Amino acid sequence: SNQPVYRATTTAPVNIAVIKYWGKRDTTLNLPTNSSLSVTLSQRSLRTLTTASCSPSYPAEDTLNLNGKPQEIQSSKRTLACLSNLRALRKSLEDADSSLPKLSTFHLRIVSENNFPTAAGLASSAAGFAALVRAVADLYQLPQSPQELSRIARQGSGSACRSLMGGYVAWRSGELADGSDSLAEEVAPASHWPEMRALVLVVSAEKKDVPSTEGMQTTVATSELFAQRVSSVVPERMTAIEDAIRVRDFPKFAEITMRDSNTFHATCLDSWPPIFYMNDVSRAAVRLVHDINRAVGRTVAAYTYDAGPNSVIYYEEKDSELVAGTVKAILGTNITGWDGPFYEPLANLTAP
Ligand code: PMV
């Protein structure tokens, strides 16, 4: 038969939080206990590539293939929520204009590929859900802004809402119970701070110990440090880091970034039973960054860690040799348990 196939392809970048999202106040809608802020990385080294297609000839049900493997999307409430939100938006376009093909009635085929290890604490779910939402929104020719689409991506994976924009992106926690004000917002475009670089150290490419959703639930329910993090520590840091970004104050940006990573991991250690994401190699990288900063006499590097042992080190281009050079020379050869590779320094500076 001569059935049409409609198709759209897109890529989405990884983002690495400098103020961490950790804790849900609503697990169905993925509403966070606190606001967070991230830097969107360049797509040259880390990105998800996704093609979405639909056709009246596609049988049975929507399908998703990730890195060559079919995924069970019917049991993934998160994926289903994203797709049903996107379909509803397409349906309202079709209801308003009867000349449009009825794409909302066709089954979807989504094919997605990461160029980096999945689920190793490299924010693969962020890039993955951002690319899925962007690809289907493009396929459906939806007029919604990236900010409006962030509300949908958030339901796939919280951190995904920050990967629909480039540069420095805040996810405002919002207050409403329906999540309509829990959205990503660009604080500054990547071009605002062209010197900014990130080095990703893949300490281990293994799957992480405790999945983020489960870890968050344990921390929210059991950590005594957590309440203080949410009520005062994070709100103060959000304001301070946005100020630092505005005036490109690297030492201030760096100190807040390192302290927030440490506070996040402290609430994990304070959870019951305790959760460990960093390992000996991660801690060696922390010491090394402090040693470099002390030796240079100013803050030239900042580490941060997500729900896994891998380090991301932020620095400015002018300090590239000092930071990236030293980290590679020392960690690459002198640390046992090192599982490499280094991703080359990334300019953080490509809009998605
Ligand atoms: O988006 P999730 O549910 O995988 O949570 C990510 C949580 C952290 O990566 C640890 C922090 C963050 O803000 O990205």
From TrEMBL:
Q: Which Pfam families match?
A: MDD_C, MVD-like_N
Q: Where is the Mvd1 C-terminal domain?
A: 198-352
**Pathway assigned in UniProt:** Isoprenoid biosynthesis; isopentenyl diphosphate biosynthesis via mevalonate pathway; isopentenyl diphosphate from (R)-mevalonate: step 3/3
Which SUPFAM superfamilies does the record associate with it? GHMP Kinase, C-terminal domain (SSF55060), Ribosomal protein S5 domain 2-like (SSF54211)
Tell me which InterPro entries the record gives. Answer: GHMP_kinase_C_sf (IPR036554), Mev_decarb (IPR005935), Mev_diP_decarb (IPR029765), MVD-like_N (IPR053859), Mvd1_C (IPR041431), Ribosomal_Su5_D2-typ_SF (IPR020568), Ribsml_uS5_D2-typ_fold_subgr (IPR014721)
Name a biological process GO annotation. isopentenyl diphosphate biosynthetic process, mevalonate pathway
Extract the Gene3D superfamilies matched here: 3.30.230.10, GHMP kinase, C-terminal domain
Question: What GO terms are given for molecular function?
Answer: ATP binding; diphosphomevalonate decarboxylase activity
Assigned protein family: Belongs to the diphosphomevalonate decarboxylase family.
Fetch the NCBIfam families from UniProt: mevDPdecarb
**Protein name (Swiss-Prot/TrEMBL):** Diphosphomevalonate decarboxylase
